[in-house]
Structure formats: C-alpha cells, structure tokens
C-alpha cells in the first residue's frame, strides 16, 4: 500500500512572502499553479524564438497604441500566479507598479508549447478559463499551428476553440484592430 502524504498548498499571499523574504528569487524558474509551486519546463530554441522574438516582434508594432506587452511576467489569479510566455495587458499609467495584472487587465495570454504542450492544454487552459481570461493561445510548436481559445466558461473550458495554421490570420477578440498572421509567430 502506498500512503500519500498531504501536500502544503500555498496561497498567493504566502507565495509573495517567499519572494519578499528571498526564499524564492529570480533564479528559481517557478510559478504558483493552484497552490503548488511548480518548476517551469526547459525552453527549447524554438520556444525561445517564438516567445521572446516572434511574438514580441509581431505584437510590438500592432499593439503599441492599444496594450502593454508582457513576457514571462506574472498574472494574479485566485489561487495561482502563472507567468505566461506572453500577454497583452490593458494600458495603465502606472505600468502595474501598484500591483500585478488580474484577469480583467488581460486581453490575451499566450503559451509557446513543445515539451509543455499537454500541460498548457490540460492545466493552464482550464486555469485561465476558470479565472475568466478572455483569450488564450497556444503556439503549438509540435504541430506548427496556433490553438485559439475564447469565451471562458466557469467549468474551466472555452466555448470557442479553433486551430489555425500558417497562412491564416486572427484578430484579437477584445482588440479587433490588432490582427496577427499565424505564420509570423511560428518559427
């Protein structure tokens, strides 16, 4: 018989205290997901190219007047503080100096996925939907496509899910003036 030991669940406030007191630092590649402090997946060259370069380049010129670009920065949720590869945030004069963005501050969250593909689909997708993140994209580096999830439901699903390929374009649900060619964000 295998006995499961109880796990300690961290609140977002507890997680912030660990950071404040230097127990967790920028050298720890972790994020808080549903009360668990989890290690991030290693990033392949394609993942880095997509998340750091292609997404930034594609959105920098398109969204500069409409949103703030955020890369690998936390978004505060009820029991989590994920650090998506990329996000578009509502413009604020304080540039979030007074606090991290919440779902209402978030137009779009993007995860670039190869090794993390199933995790991004099965853990992060429901987490974002349950917290009313309006639009969630997975840049699927395995199948060279963009998985678009819109219209979050309380049960952790998205009512509108579609797969786009290079050659397709998509406008953001909450920022229809911002449209991206799928081929511009897939290495």
CATH topology (level 3) name: tt1808, chain A
CATH homologous superfamily descriptor:
tt1808, chain A
* Biggest sheet details: 6 strands, mixed
Report the radius of gyration as a whole number of Å: 17 Å
Q: How many strand units? A: 10
How many helices in DSSP terms? Answer: 3
Shape, per Cα inertia axes: globular
* Poorly predicted residue ranges: none
What percentage of residues falls in helices of 4 or more residues?
10-25%
The oligomeric state of the chains shown is single chain
Number of domains: 1
User: What is the CATH top level name?
Assistant: Alpha Beta
What structural class do you assign from the helix and strand content? alpha+beta
Strand fraction equals 25-35%
Key features?
single chain, 187 residues, alpha+beta, tt1808, chain A, six-stranded mixed β-sheet, two-stranded antiparallel ribbon, 3 helices, 22% helix, globular
Describe the overall structure.
The chain has helices at residues 12-20, 45-63, 117-130, and strands at residues 30-33, 36-39, 67-70, 86-90, 106-113, 135-140, 145-152, 158-164, 169-171, 179-181. It is 22% helix and 28% strand. The chain is an alpha+beta fold and 187 residues long. It is globular, with a radius of gyration of 17 Å. The mean pLDDT is 92.
């Amino acid at each position: 018989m295998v006995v499961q030991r109880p796990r300690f669940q961290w609140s977002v406030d507890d997680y912030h205290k660990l950071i404040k007191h230097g127990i967790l630092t920028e050298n720890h590649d972790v994020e808080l997901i549903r009360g668990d402090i989890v290690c991030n997946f290693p990033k392949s060259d394609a993942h880095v190219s997509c998340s750091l370069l292609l997404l930034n380049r594609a959105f920098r010129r398109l969204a500069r007047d409409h949103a703030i670009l955020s890369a690998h920065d936390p978004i505060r949720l009820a029991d989590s503080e994920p650090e998506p590869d990329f996000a578009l945030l509502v413009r604020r004069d304080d540039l979030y100096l007074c606090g991290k963005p919440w779902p209402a501050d978030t137009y779009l969250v993007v995860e670039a996925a190869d090794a993390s593909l199933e995790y991004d689909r099965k853990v992060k997708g429901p987490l974002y939907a349950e917290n009313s993140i309006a639009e969630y994209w997975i840049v699927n580096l395995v199948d060279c496509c963009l998985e678009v999830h819109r219209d979050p439901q309380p049960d952790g699903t998205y009512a509108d899910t579609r797969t786009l390929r290079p050659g397709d374009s998509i406008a953001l649900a909450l920022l229809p003036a911002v449209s991206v060619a799928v081929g511009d964000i897939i290495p």
